[in-house]
């Protein structure tokens, strides 16, 4: 299947040589770089903030797909935009005023995405879907790399695809968590257009570039009805 994007998540990358690993995955055909921002409140882990996004901006031209797993993300939208994010994704569970947040992101000229935790029903998207550029379905509970894919999420991806198709707008459907060459074909067949992959790329024994190519090969022959 052509046109599916692969977004390596640097959460699992060797940060001592970030520019080298980013160059490696870019050279192997990565489409976006996925950056997992965690605040220790919304999720039980702490990771990166604006300085890493700014550093990435200086080392790559690939779009930076910034996944905000933080409470009250509206406090930092402008800072992430200034740091060089291209796409900002906020969680519906963290945003009581989601409509305002999405419009704020788009007002700054960035692509706006919404993410749903595994237990959050797709009905949470109903009123906001016409306003977003991207939907991210969490296929693990957010907070850590290297977790096992929750099988039941495949069906959720299929239903999300149905909602997007019914709307008739080109909204990216991204899956995040436990994605690798084993389940990527089924996810793409279910309608995913962006595959985030952390451990399956950066912890692969063959190295990130070869792992990314393997993921690409796995989805090459998938045909969508
Ligand atoms: C999890 C993050 C993911 C994570 C995916 O909370 O949102 O982006 O890096 O990593 P893997 O592919 O290892 O599950
Ligand atoms: Zn993520």
Description:
Helix 2 (50-59) runs parallel beside helix 3 (77-83). Helix 5 links the parallel strand 6 and strand 7 (172-176). The longest helix has 15 residues, at 153-167. The protein has eight helices and eight strands; from the N terminus they run βαβαβαβαββαβαβαα. It has helices at residues 18-27, 50-59, 77-83, 98-107, 153-167, 184-190, 199-202, 208-220; strands spanning 5-8, 33-38, 64-69, 87-91, 111-116, 134-138, 172-176, 194-197. It has 225 residues and is an alpha/beta fold. The protein has an eight-stranded parallel beta sheet with strand order 1-8-7-6-5-4-3-2. Bound molecules: D-xylitol-5-phosphate and zinc ion. Zinc ion (ZN) binds at residues 9, 34, 36, 67, 176, 196.
Write the layout of secondary structure elements.
Blueprint lengths: L4 E4 L9 H10 L5 E6 L11 H10 L4 E6 L7 H7 L3 E5 L6 H10 L3 E6 L17 E5 L14 H15 L4 E5 L7 H7 L3 E4 L1 H4 L5 H13 L5
Parallel strand pairs: 1-8, 2-3, 3-4, 4-5, 5-6, 6-7, 7-8
Bound molecules: D-xylitol-5-phosphate and zinc ion.
Zinc ion binds next to β2.
Based on CA atoms alone, the radius of gyration comes out at 16 Å
Strand order of the largest sheet: 1-8-7-6-5-4-3-2
How would you classify the helix and strand content by structural class? alpha/beta
Number of distinct beta strands? 8
Name the helix and strand elements from N-terminus to C-terminus, one letter apiece: EHEHEHEHEEHEHEHH
What would the average pLDDT be, to the nearest integer? 97
How much helicity do the residues have? 25-40%
The portion of residues forming beta strands comes to 15-25%
């Amino acid at each position: 299947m052509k046109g599916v994007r692969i977004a390596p998540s640097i959460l699992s990358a060797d940060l001592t040589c970030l520019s080298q690993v980013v160059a490696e995955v870019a050279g192997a055909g990565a489409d976006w770089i996925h950056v997992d921002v965690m605040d220790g409140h919304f999720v039980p882990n702490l990771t990166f903030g604006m300085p890493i996004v700014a550093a990435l901006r200086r080392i790559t031209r690939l779009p930076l797909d910034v996944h905000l797993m933080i409470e009250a993300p509206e406090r930092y939208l402008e800072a992430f935009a200034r740091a060089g994010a291209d796409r900002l994704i906020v969680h519906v569970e963290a945003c009581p005023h989601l409509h305002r947040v999405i419009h704020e992101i788009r007002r700054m000229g960035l692509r706006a995405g919404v993410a749903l935790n595994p237990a959050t029903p797709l009905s949470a998207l109903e009123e906001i879907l016409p306003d977003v550029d991207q939907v991210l379905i969490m296929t693990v509970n957010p907070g850590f790399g290297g977790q096992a894919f929750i099988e039941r999420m495949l069906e959720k991806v299929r239903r999300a695809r149905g909602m997007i198709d019914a709307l008739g707008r080109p909204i990216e459907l991204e899956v995040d968590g436990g994605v690798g060459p084993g389940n990527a074909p089924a996810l793409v067949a279910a309608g995913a257009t962006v595959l985030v992959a952390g451990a399956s790329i950066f912890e692969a024994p063959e190295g990130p570039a070869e792992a990314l190519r393997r993921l690409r090969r796995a989805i090459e022959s998938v045909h969508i009805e």
